[in-house]
Every structure is written in structure tokens, then in C-alpha cells.
Amino acid sequence: MRTKTIGVILAAVLATLALGSVFTASASAAPQWNFAGTALTGKEDILGAAISSSMTIPGMTTTCDHFLYNMQIENSGGAGKGKIDELPLFECHTNTPACTVEAIEAKALPWPTHLMTVAEKPYLFVEGIEVGILYGGAECALGEVEVPVRGTAGGLLSNETESATFNASTFSATGAKLKVGSTPIEWNGVFPTEAFEWHREESLSVE
Amino acid sequence: MAPGRITLGGIAAAAASIALAVSGCGGGSSSAPGTTGGGSATAPSSAASQPADGGSSDATATKTGEGSASKAAAPGDKSAPGRSPGKYEKKHPPLELPTGKPESGPTKAQQERVPTADIKVTIPDGLTTANTCNGKNTSPAISWQNVPPGTAELAIFAMSVKPVDGKLYFDWALAGVDPNLSELKPGEVPNGAVLGRNGAGQNGYSLCPAGSAAETYIFSVYALPDSLSAKPGFDPLALRKQATRASEEVGLAAATFQG
After folding, report:
1. Residue of A44, A70, A157 for testing the chain B interface, max B β-carbons within 10 Å
2. Domain residues for A130?
3. What distance in Å separates the CA atoms of residue B76 and residue A171, rounded to the nearest whole number?
């Protein structure tokens, strides 16, 4: 009986400690950028490079065979922040034979970014996104109009693969929205990421 | 960087950096991060606040060197500040960087030729069976905002995203719409507006999805600075071309019908 009571008390203490750690984690500040396990001081440039990233307007998907971003990152006020200052897109095309991509460019750069935690997972949140797309093709329903894609994007960061993943579920988790007018746009892409300035060839993590 | 212009400063530096890591040229030879060792490609707009060598900046020369940016991880320069000792093992496949030129924005001629989709168009109730030829075949409710001042009339088109028999298929075309309106109720043809000939050969609206698969339609609203004086039964393809040339702003909304 006494042993059982001690066991119950011990279990309660352990449960309390476990809950405490959970609450501590939940209440922790926004994640920070780390290199080789140490919080970044100063600024660093990182490159995200996706193969075959796509944006889907309902009914039509525009894919860029290579989709890069250059982001300057820093930890400021205990939180990871940054800005995307370049976003070159390569070899873009649609899945509709009638529509070609005549022109596409990122506008209104730089786009501010910050790290956030949702359900204990780290996300990269991008604001102020604007991509202008001009579709061509005499039989293209979206042709001959410059189509602006505007809004925000949220991507899940993985320390295991040093990559950022953008898809419908990461947008949903972060509340991010990309639109053409009032029409939602879906953005899919996995961006392996590397530093190339002061922390080149150091492991990048978000904690 | 000027808004709207993509430069390859930072990307170029990255490409050069990564390429050198692959080739081994960067291993212990460069004096600072971001330098290329050979000085053939570096530069760095975004790295302006960091030490960098005086190598020339040539974006076209730095499209990842020969394109095969990195095929294997290689130790880089560990002498630079902030570097940690030990070999870094990449946790993802090598970055694959493109070899060609990036896509560009619209040329000046294109900008002058095409309108921008800045009018906000909404199909508030989406598309239902009532909006198809399996139901009442009435046009859906549609609303719009941000029509520029000075607009003489609006033209509205509904088109299937997928061409039919290789042709752009118009389900609905309406011209001469009062620019002071901001919405149309289901099936409404406002006073003064004229209907064009749809893909089914009728002067009116008709939306007939081919099967049970989801079909997406684009609804566009053109703000026209001058009236196009369209006549009933007008050719929507020709009028859309006219509208594209004449208007500076247009609105787009996609709506999907799931049969």
C-alpha cells in the first residue's frame, strides 16, 4: 500500500514536471536561426533552391523548374527574422497547352520574413509577396493580362533536412494566404537551404 | 535594388560559393566567405556589409558555374570568422542550381499592351448546378471592386480554363455594363448591357461542364475608358482583344464547378 502511494506521488511529480516542460516549450519565444548549434549573431545570407516549385490558380498550374530565393537572416530581439531580397525563377511553364508564361517576376522586394512556432513546429512566414505573371496564348483564358499573385506564405522548416516546405498544409498552419484578387493560390515547393556567407558549410537549424 | 527588378547579386555569390565548394577551389583558399578564390564570380549586392573580395560581378557568369552546382559536399574555407571546425555533412541533396537565364518581367512593350488584374472580382456563391445547363443555366452572382475612375463601361467574360477543340471557349460575354455597378445578381443582365454570342452559339449565358470532373472557369471584368459600342451577338473573342488593348485594369476570378 505504502509502495503504491509513493508510486502515485512519484507519477504525479513526473507528470507535473512533464507538463511544466510542455508549457515552457509552448510559451517559449519565437525560434531563432542557429548555425552549428549556436544562435546566429549578425547577419547571414542563405539560399533556398527548389526544383519544380509550382503555383496553382484553380484549373491551371504554373511550374518553375528552378525556383530560388536569397534571404538575409538575423536574430533580432530574440526572434529569427529576415528578408527575401532576390527571387529568380527559371524555366516557367503551365500545365495548359494553351497558356505560356511570357513573363514572370517577383515584385516589391524585399519581402520581410520571420520565424514562428505553430504546434511546436518551426515555420518561416513571408510577408508582402508579389509575383507578376503574364500569360501568353491566343486561346489562354488568363492570357494577355498581367496577373498579380499577392499575399503571405508559410513554410515548415526542417532541421533534419535543412529545408523549407511550402504547401497547403503549411499555409493552413500559419494562416498564410496567397491570392489573385479574391482567388486563393496554392504554392508548393521544397527548398533545401544553405548559408553561403559567414556560415557556409555549417549546419543550419531553427530552435 | 529597384522594385520589380531581379538581380542576381546574392544568388550569384551563392552559386559561386557553392560551385567552389564542389570543385574544391574554395577549400582553404579563399580568404573570406563569399569570395570565389578565382575572382571570376563574386559579388554581392546583399553581402555589401560583409567583407568581400574585389572580384568582378558578372551575373551571367555565375549561373552556378557550369550548372552542376554541387555534386558532393566539400569542406570549405574554415579560416573565416564564424566557422566551426569539422566537416559539415549536408542534410539534404546538393542544391541544384539552374544554368540558364532567369525569367524576366514584362517588357515595356508588354506593359503598355496588357492590363493589370487589379480589379477585385468575386463569385460569392461559387458555381452550383443552377449555374449550369444541368440546372437553370443562370449566370452566377458576381461582384467587383476597385474600378478605376473615368471608366466608361465594363465588359464581363466567363471562359473555360481549358480550351474546347483548341479554341478559347466563352460561356458568357457581356458588354456595355454600367461602371457604377459593383455586382450582378444571379441571371441579371443590367440595363444598357448587351450579350455576346457564347460558345454554344447563343446570345447569352450557358455553362455546360463536359462531365463529372471539376471544371474551372475564369471570370474577368474589364474596365474600359471608352465605350466599345458592342452590338448584341458580338464576337466575344474579338471584343476581348479590343478590351485588352483599350483597358488598363481588369479583374479575374476563378470558380470551379464540381459535377
Report:
1. A70
2. 31-206
3. 36
